[in-house]
């Protein structure tokens, strides 16, 4: 059996604000909003590929503990987006006040990457594939 990632799921203090951030900065499109788990909402978003982004509210009674967006932490460290022009994307995101976690770095294979902090302390990698 062949597997593929169905979705990436983020828990957010304010899922509507988080979804709006992805709409604004990454052209995401909200395709659904529903209660999946009791007393929570999940906003489903298309991100331009087959993998969906889900943003959900925090279940009642769950912890308020948060992780800091940083490289090399255990668990889900980050997710990434392909971009065509990394320099232009980083200039746009920096001008919008988004924190750069790792400046543009060229890999030995010629691709370029950078990391930014998204809402809810989510670490996001931007990758410009090698030409």
How does the overall form come out from the CA principal axes?
globular
Mean pLDDT: 90
Looking at the structure, the CATH topology of the largest domain is Signal recognition particle alu RNA binding heterodimer, srp9/1
Give the beta-strand count: 8
Low-confidence stretches at least 5 residues in length (pLDDT < 50)?
none
Protein name: VOC domain-containing protein
GO biological process, one term: L-methylmalonyl-CoA metabolic process
Organism: Geodia barretti (Barrett's horny sponge)
Pfam family, one: Glyoxalase
Any descriptors?
alpha/beta; Signal recognition particle alu RNA binding heterodimer, srp9/1; 2 domains; 35% strand; 4-stranded mixed β-sheet; 2,3-Dihydroxybiphenyl 1,2-Dioxygenase, domain 1
Summary?
The chain has 131 residues and is an alpha/beta fold. It is built from two helices and eight strands, in the order E-H-E-E-E-E-H-E-E-E.
Task: Report on this structure.
This protein has 131 residues and is of the alpha/beta class. The protein is built from 2 helices and 8 strands, in the order E-H-E-E-E-E-H-E-E-E. The protein has a 4-stranded mixed β-sheet, with helices on one face. The mean pLDDT is 90. GO terms for molecular function: metal ion binding; methylmalonyl-CoA epimerase activity. It comes from Geodia barretti. InterPro entries: Glyas_Bleomycin-R_OHBP_Dase, Glyas_Fos-R_dOase_dom, MMCE/EMCE_epimerase, VOC_core. Pfam families: Glyoxalase.
């Amino acid at each position: 059996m062949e597997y593929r990632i169905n979705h990436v799921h983020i828990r957010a203090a304010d899922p509507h604000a988080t979804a709006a951030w992805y709409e604004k900065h990454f052209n995401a499109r909200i395709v659904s909003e529903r209660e999946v788990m009791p007393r929570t909402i999940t906003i489903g978003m298309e991100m331009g590929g087959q993998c969906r982004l889900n943003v959900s509210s925090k279940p009642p009674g769950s912890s308020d503990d948060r992780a800091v967006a940083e490289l090399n932490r255990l668990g889900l460290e980050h997710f990434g987006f392909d971009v065509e022009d990394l320099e232009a994307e980083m200039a746009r995101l920096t001008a919008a006040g988004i924190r750069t976690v790792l400046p543009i770095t060229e890999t030995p294979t010629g691709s370029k990457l950078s990391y930014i902090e998204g809402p809810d302390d989510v670490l996001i990698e931007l990758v410009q594939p090698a030409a």
